[in-house]
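thread from #wetlab-drylab

HS: before we spend reagent money on co-crystallization trials with NAP, can we at least see a predicted complex? here's what I'd submit
DV: go for it
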Amino acid sequence: MNSKDHCVKLNDGHFIPVLGFGTALRKMTLKSEALKATQLAIDAGFRHIDTADVYQNEEQIGLAIQSKIADGVIERADIFLTSKLWCTCLRPELVRPTLERSLKRLQVDYIDLYLIHHPVAMKPGEEYFPLDEHGKLAFDTVDLCATWEALEKCKDLGLAKSIGVSNFSRGQLEMILNKPGLRHKPVCNQVECHLYLNQSELLDFCKSKDVVLVAYGALGTQRNKNWVDKNAPFLLDDPVLCAMAKKYKRTAALISLRYLLQRGTVVLAKSFNEERIKENLQVFDFQLASEDMKVLDGLNKNFRYISFALFHDHPNNPFRDE
Ligand code: NAP
């Protein structure tokens, strides 16, 4: 079995595997591990791979895909590949050249899904986190609708089969959906979503608009100390979740992933460990009963691990109202 056997149709007619392989790096020193882990993930059956310019691992992901094509394990068309436009490249004229750089690093001539990574714009330049003369993040002012129109052109050119957004609030998503002259709807909004932040309102809204919600941090995130408070609770240690795992004779990780799939989200799971990569694909082997889904719904506490605190003062901070 592989994750391509389990897909949902996007609003532009393309199909996305409902389980994706996350590749974000907690430490840049793990770059070479991203290559090995992605090869293992493809061998295990993952067919949806999630990367981003800012992860600085596109070259390794590209090498992993090329090596598996060369081995005859996959063809390019078997892989659903996502990358993301970073916050320093939101000016419309930067969108196409930035995507083309990603394609080059990934060694592909199209990407399956290209996302605006985050609605907060920062000043263009070489740095991913540019600073101003006072040592503060150098924010930029960009009309996100104009950025979206530049993504639409990339789709028209076939550089990206599908286009979407990430970390957008409901209001920001509505702004794109209601944009006069909209030619292509966002196919998805990729957001943090797990048992402690189950996003039920945003999910209902996305469903009502035929926009897929892609869940990241489904296993409680990698707890990167730059982004996540060290005192944040460990999701996979939750006692109710662990009891449920015992009941189903599965791991807490599998219950967490299964819960999200059954609510109709697409789910990303990152692991660079061979056993856990294989384990995560077992999410298709069982089902949670509706009464247990309700128990798991009860774990929600609207707790966000990654609040992008650095972006709090930006007028487009999507989590401003929380
Ligand atoms: P995650 O999927 O929540 O995973 C967290 C940790 O769980 C991993 O470090 C992994 O460690 C561990 N794990 C994986 N499988 C497990 C299992 N079966 N049992 C026990 N532990 C397990 O992590 P994430 O990287 O924060 O999120 C997933 C992906 O979403 C990212 O990699 C990235 O592609 C995407 N993402 C997007 C955004 C955005 O702004 N759009 C933000 C964050 C993440 P091991 O490697 O040691 O197994």
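DV: The longest helix spans residues 92-106.
HS: ok that's useful, forwarding to the group
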